[in-house]
Automatic annotation (TrEMBL):
Keyword Metal-binding: yes
Family matches, as SUPFAM superfamilies: Chaperone J-domain, CSL zinc finger
Gene for this chain: JJJ3
PANTHER family documented for this protein: CO-CHAPERONE PROTEIN DJLA (PTHR24074)
Residue stretches making up the J domain: 3-67
Protein name per Swiss-Prot or TrEMBL: Diphthamide biosynthesis protein 4
UniProt key word Metal-binding: yes
Family statement: Belongs to the DPH4 family.
Keywords of the record: Iron, Metal-binding
Domain DPH-type MB: 82-149
InterPro entries, alphabetized: DjlA_DnaK_co-chaperone, DnaJ_domain, DPH_MB_dom, DPH_MB_sf, J_dom_sf
Role of this protein: Required for the first step of diphthamide biosynthesis, the transfer of 3-amino-3-carboxypropyl from S-adenosyl-L-methionine to a histidine residue. Diphthamide is a post-translational modification of histidine which occurs in elongation factor 2.
PROSITE patterns in alphabetical order: DNAJ_2 (PS50076), DPH_MB (PS51074)
Lineage: Eukaryota, Fungi, Dikarya, Ascomycota, Saccharomycotina
Signal peptide: none
Length: 154
């Protein structure tokens, strides 16, 4: 399935004016004169929906979050390059909830970055004998990379 960004042919970090321009260009391309009289309503609807979401800051943020969550659910490890790296030892462990949490280093929201045991199972080799995974702040959507050692069973 194409994302709204794909539909408009813009990068996920495009500015609103770039999105506006792409929208106008796409609409022109779907004009009946250009496509030989056949009006592709399906495509036009997709373009309009994409523009509606991406041109509105709040909707776009929500959509970005959704995309990120979707990618996470598929076990997709986003390219962690350029992300701040933390050790799991910098997290606090909540024994009752059985999860690790940490204050976000950007928005300072307490316990905004959380890792559950099932998350840790998704880690990938960090090339230095440990594991790493990327995790997102629940509050400001910042991504960080967390490194840890595979847990020894007690
Ligand atoms: Zn944050």
């Amino acid at each position: 399935m194409s994302s709204h960004y794909d539909v408009l042919g813009v990068a996920p970090n495009s500015t609103t004016s770039e999105i506006k321009r792409a929208y106008r260009e796409k609409l022109l391309l779907t004009h009946p004169d250009k496509v030989g009289g056949e009006l592709s309503t399906d495509l036009i609807q997709q373009i309009q929906l994409a523009y509606k979401v991406l041109s509105d800051e709040t909707h776009r943020q929500e959509y970005d979050d959704e995309l990120a969550r979707g990618l996470q659910k598929q076990g997709f490890n986003i390219n962690g390059e350029g992300l701040d790296i933390y050790s799991l030892e910098e997290f606090e462990f909540d024994e009752d909830a059985v999860l690790w949490h940490k204050m976000c280093c950007r928005c300072q929201a307490p316990e905004a970055i959380k890792l559950e045991e099932s998350d840790l199972e998704l880690g990938t080799d960090d090339g230095e004998g440990g594991l790493e995974l990327v995790v997102q702040c629940n509050s400001c959507s910042l991504w960080i990379k967390v490194r840890y050692m595979e847990e020894a069973d007690e």
